[in-house]
Amino acid sequence: MTHTAPVRDWATDFDVMDPDYLRDPFSIWDQLRSACPIPHTDRRKSSWMPLRYEDVTAIAHDVVHFSSAKVGVIPADEDADPVELEGPNLEYGLPPISSDPPLHTWTRRLLLPWFSHKRVESYVPLTRELCRRLLDGFAGAGRADAAGDYAQQIPVRVIAHILGVSSDLSDTFTGWVRDVLEFADDTERRRHGTEGLLNYFVSELEQRRANPGDDLLSALLTADVDGEHVDDGIVLGMAALVLIAGVDTTWSAIGSSLWHLATHPEDRKRLAAEPELMPTAIEELLRAYSPVTMAREVTEDIVYAGCPMRAGDKVLMNFPAANRDPEAFDHPEEVRLDRAHNRHIAFGSGIHRCAGSNLARMELQVALEEWLARVPDFSLAQGEEITWAGGQVRGPRVLPVVFG
Amino acid sequence: MKLRVDPDKCQGHARCYGLAPEIFDVDDYGQASVIVDEVPPELEEKARLAVANCPEYAIEIVAE
């Protein structure tokens, strides 16, 4: 189920999977923001897409009218196009991201300590070691696919460590996650990814039940919530969520940041020369190249900012566009590595703030530090194609660069 | 200078901790808090940066 008909009017017929949008969503947002800041489409499903910072944050905070029950950007209409699974199913969705209070509240509290800044600090050495090993593999070649050879390889292995599963299956995990997030318009791929993930975690959870370890999966199985164990279906959904949310997203942020540095030599040199600038630069790169758009579902008919939203409509929470809103950021089109005032919402806004934001930020910083230490000078490989994923998660999927 | 984090607004972005760990801490559940009674003058600029970067507008300056 793919829709590739050309978009004639972005205000009334937008398509986040349109090739122009995947390549350059920025100019489309800029045109729409003043003319029609909440465009609508009937492609896939009646959907609205707020682009202004003020609207995105307001809707994110109104969890009564805008439910998180269906957060997928694609497919937009899961009910009309369900994946029929043989075997385990996601009867509870992916809590807490695809749930509203009260389920959201207590499932989120189970996850948060695994991603606290103190815990994330303890993951730094293995992340650094991993980045160095990857760089060892291609630094001598004088070129690399910065997305496939590097960015893609990092978050999946750190997440596997936290979950307590083998990183030998990293490529398989990545494939499943991409099937679910990037190719969800393709029912077969969506089924393949979902089944692969769920069957894998059912088996892993069985093993942990017999032999609990010091890992997130075991902790979920043994968690005590008001004197009760967590339902198996909820544990499965949470396990799947940690992998799905922890892989494509951060990999995309690392890839987009490397793309920026490959195409902006002045920023690359500055960052290599002023490492103390890194934390501020990380926030700016997250702002300018925010990877993630999440959906909400309208719970009852409501007129928001003049838009007649109907119960069941989708709202695509365009955090990346909000982060380029000139009403919220001074010259948002400019990447300023030392931007001092930066209330970006790359990790969302309100109660669904990305539970893994500390981890993502750390991985992005360590990945860039290690890359720049080994490969301070690099640029795009001339004449070679760069491909971008988009829709739910935007970032480069093939990014050929040459060193020196 | 005295600061306060509104616990109802704070969602755990942890930007304040990243900018000024001398002034803020964030607990295991993402809740930020101010760990000094009075912000020392040499940290006031950092405190203002934390206020200006909080995506939830959760940090208030309660006394200058």
Textual characterization of the structure:
The complex is a heterodimer of chains A (404) and B (64). Chain A has 16 helices and 12 strands. Chain A has one domain: Cytochrome p450 (Orthogonal Bundle), CATH 1.10.630.10. The relative contact order of chain A is 0.18. The mean pLDDT of chain A is 94. Chain A has 404 residues and is α+β, with helices and mostly antiparallel strands. Chain A has a 5-stranded mixed beta sheet with strand order 1-2-8-5-3, with helices on one face. With 64 residues, chain B is α+β, with helices and mostly antiparallel strands. Chain B has a single domain, classed as Alpha-Beta Plaits. Chain B has 2 helices and 4 strands. The longest helix of chain B has 10 residues, at 44-53. The radius of gyration of chain B is 10 Å and the shape is globular. The interface between A and B is medium-sized, with 24 and 20 residues.
Fraction in helix of chain A: 40-55%
Fill in the CATH topology of chain A. Answer: Cytochrome p450
Beta percentage of chain B is 15-25%
Determine the CATH superfamily of chain A: Cytochrome P450
C-alpha geometry of chain A: globular
Named CATH architecture of chain B: 2-Layer Sandwich
Order of strands in the sheet with most strands of chain B: 1-4
Count of helical regions of chain B: 2
